[in-house]
## 1
Amino acid sequence: MNESDTYRIHPIGYIRRTDQGNQLEIMEAYQPALKQLEHFSHVMVFWWADKHDNEKSRTTLQTQPPYAADKLCGVFATRAEYRPNPIAMTTCKLLEVDEANGIVKVAEIDAFDGTPLIDLKAYFPVCDRVKDAHIPGWLSDWSEWMPEEGLGL
Amino acid sequence: MNESDTYRIHPIGYIRRTDQGNQLEIMEAYQPALKQLEHFSHVMVFWWADKHDNEKSRTTLQTQPPYAADKLCGVFATRAEYRPNPIAMTTCKLLEVDEANGIVKVAEIDAFDGTPLIDLKAYFPVCDRVKDAHIPGWLSDWSEWMPEEGLGL
């Protein structure tokens, strides 16, 4: 166990943004993993922030976020896509799951067209919905809930 | 963009379970990324399910979950640790953040001692808390909220 350990991950599909909406295109090999997903209202979409898979972004450990420019924050205290492992995660509202064709339509997602997908996890309130969550005072005007359609670009 | 693409991730620290509690030990190189995290009540802990980083687990696409043994589910519709990319994520209640020493104490976490950590993200209700979430009927007796102390082993 040391810092040079490396784990390997592979894309399971790609994000497609079109005039008709946003969809997750899952590679054929992984399509059986979608079974029953249509019974959930939301899915956590894990994507690879490929534009930040470089030395500069992966060694940026602190930032002044756009929403709080006077606060120097560690990247673990933000959702910045530049971080040591550029794994991003967006909770999305599910519109449609087509298991046979590997298409998952979502309302909104804050990732660019062509972004690699690395995992999907159904949203379970018992795991993911925190009743008494608080955030720093400088974010106190932010919504207490995810917007109905989710977060887009 | 094809199935053989590989992305590389590295541990940022390890989970330690002791009689005194559960803590995340962050490697020295990544400790500055913890700055300001103490102002949040919860953190999403991304860990590498190292016991499932093998061919069998990574090609298991469907499962009969212990809580619904008569339902064949795709792994994307579950939180199983066996999945194409064995990335697991647990939302944890923060107890203490010691940036200088790289120690983050959490109430509960459902990962074994020694498990590699790959990312931390502060829990933002605007991103992560869904007001109108629903789950399959066969899970209807599950809590609508994460337990106060979180999910343990």
## 2
Amino acid sequence: MISVNEDYLKLRGSYLFSEIGKRVNAYAAAHPEKSIIRLGIGDVTRPLPPVVIDALHKAVDEMANEDTFRGYAPDLGYEFLRSAIAEWDYKKRGCDISPDEIFVSDGAKSDSGNIQEIFGRGCKVAVCDPVYPVYVDTNVMSGRAGTYIEETGMWDNIIYMPCTKDNGFAPCLPKEVPDLIYLCFPNNPTGATITKSELQKWVDYANKNGSVILYDAAYEAYITEEDVPHSIYECEGARECAIELHSFSKNAGFTGLRLGYTVIPKSLVRDGVMLHSLWARRHGTKYNGAPYIVQRAGEAIYSEEGQAQIKETVDYYMRNARIILKGLHGAGYEVSGGVNAPYIWMKTPFKLKSWDYFDSLLSQANVVGTPGVGFGPSGEGYFRLTAFGKYENTVMAINRIRSI
Amino acid sequence: MISVNEDYLKLRGSYLFSEIGKRVNAYAAAHPEKSIIRLGIGDVTRPLPPVVIDALHKAVDEMANEDTFRGYAPDLGYEFLRSAIAEWDYKKRGCDISPDEIFVSDGAKSDSGNIQEIFGRGCKVAVCDPVYPVYVDTNVMSGRAGTYIEETGMWDNIIYMPCTKDNGFAPCLPKEVPDLIYLCFPNNPTGATITKSELQKWVDYANKNGSVILYDAAYEAYITEEDVPHSIYECEGARECAIELHSFSKNAGFTGLRLGYTVIPKSLVRDGVMLHSLWARRHGTKYNGAPYIVQRAGEAIYSEEGQAQIKETVDYYMRNARIILKGLHGAGYEVSGGVNAPYIWMKTPFKLKSWDYFDSLLSQANVVGTPGVGFGPSGEGYFRLTAFGKYENTVMAINRIRSI
């Protein structure tokens, strides 16, 4: 008898950002005269850097000529890109990662959603609370989450690690030992981060207990402080316990171009199996590589000129972050994040629930943010604003919020 | 206790085309002076059509400007592309498919690998034998295949539908009713196809039994005969039982650009659930859209000029197909396919096993093909050649094969 994936049916409502999109579209349709400023979804607004544009045009021209045309890409990604990543993102930072430990993909969302698939369905998962919804939803879809408990807003087979004002929005080591630990620093959604010595504790904990850390470093380009690690492989022993996920979306503006990579060191072995070989098998069987032209675009940021250009973009967004932080703080709001991350985490005024604040901000200020509770129960009463808007819009949005 | 996905460990050796790649690379390294002609993997060799190149350049320029820059794409793909697909691939053929039943993706390999995920793990799967390995391997990875039986070369929980010389390489309706039926016409690897009235029997069978047909139409652009359907939705009742997978790889040369789409009619309901909504949820949670520039490239083939240009490419490859067919037939080989498909299915000479013939052809003629047994046990003693090579190489390859 045919059946559908029953784990899919357990999912709660729709994906957070789809729900936001629906509410914003409904409001916009009802009030076509209003100019809505979107600081909700973490989508970038700056155009692609010139080095990337040049690389794309050049690669497109190669595809027009039979002598330089490229068909299927190598399973793990082109050597030119993997070597550039190994050199610039790892070797220059003193991390020991070789090109063939790097898997190029169409982005960190796909990778962070698919990576759980190489693990057993019985693995116990720990996530920060609040958390990027993809980590939880994809484990729900694979049957690892258990049952959703309406009263708590939690899945009963997931270990939630609260990130609250009390712990500076950085989780404590869990008492019940998880098999898989999702960490994201600088953090989405809170914008918080941890120091290298704090991260070392997680690596030691994972190595002691046999856990695997799934480390999402999508926002590392936004780090401004010295003692904040850009990669988990800066920590000793991380090659034995950590998988790292990277994105080209937030540093180089590739949200619409799609490129990311995942690192699985060959020394990471669990259950007697190299995780690297399982992920290679998944890539080879269910994926066919990122577009050649996009891989050339990614390569372009790994040069002095490319790094200078992406720094310019990051600086643009971080100016927005300062405007949001200062503007809201000055108006008496409780805000954090925004120093090593493009996200600002604000407490809602008057103890409003996150979605109530979302609706009121949308209708009163025509500003879109992301309800904190959408990221998990500890996010209730919080609200995420992103620094990825245009400068003028960001200034206007903060003025509007201040004036209500 | 942490564990890895035990279903992954059941997989046999490496993915077929990775294995071929390894053997060819080993031979090439040992004999650097030899010129190897690759008619193995179904990768195209013609450059992208001019309309596609123009669309790419134009879209890249849009990404360079803040007013026209595009970030995250809509979940299902851009409206401009989905509308063009609905118009050209369906409405013009009298098929009733609306744009919002079309899901744009990074290619048919990903889609055909991921689509099983929306179904229950207990579903019984039927595949043609021989078959595109992705259908089987991804069901092995999801625990639906059972145990591999060394003696038969088959998984004991999969229904194999033999495609042999006796049935003209088109499967018979299975006696044991499957929940999921993978069909691919024109077929990879045999190049065979079926008429519309034959396909109608499959649609009727599925509707009668509640099965779902996963119809891979990746090669429809190669159809030359009148009574062969381009889409399963040309059959009555297919909206109630069929999902259709499409690729831009083989008609427009996008193997290195990555674009495909999947159609799930909203009227396709199983287990009380619209399959459309499950796939939408998967897209929204684990995927972030095909690149904007690539979606514009896809749109470009849907114009009179674009259609003329892709026809020119298809004609080029079909000339190769005729050369392979005629050349091998004239030399006494038993060959089929190659009339509505870019694949030629040949019986190995002297009853050689497929991999033995692969090795001997590689070393004696320096020609790479694909061992038929790599596609399933009924492929043993067969060999697949593709028409996707360059014309001159194809002529040379056939001359070399004829001369050994």
